[in-house]
Specification:
By secondary structure, the protein is α+β, with helices and mostly antiparallel strands. The protein has 5 helices and 4 strands; from the N terminus they run αααβαβαββ. The chain is globular, with a radius of gyration of 16 Å.
Amino acid sequence: MKDLNSMIATEVLKPVFALVDEKVTLQEEREKVKRCIMDVLNAPKGLVSIDVYDVRDLFQEGGVIHAFDVSVDALMANRMNLMMVEITRNSTHLEPFNHALVFFFFPEEQPLRMDELQPFSDWIESITGDFLIKWGMAPQSKQELRAIVLLQ
């Protein structure tokens, strides 16, 4: 049964990976984008999930896709403020972008609370022009707040 599930997963991912191959020219960057997409798609069932169709629909139009992965200590005060500083620092040189996928992983024992998401909301509102975003979050076993970000 595992082989059948692997074959089905491979067939579903083919259009997304073809899209990445088309939109990312450097092999090293292409592998990073694919790895980030797989981390998001393989996330444990989250509070807000992203599926392969979300990824395909989000990045179907437009140019090059860029990916990065950032993390901060989940026990730090103002952890989302610190996370957004890292996201901003890593995304500034990629502007302008108009599509984003952002996925947060949080420790099971320190879940993200709705009131912590304000810095993320502020970041979204700071982006000028037409902007489409898909975002999600899920628990993980590591003691860090991690974000995978894909921009186009």
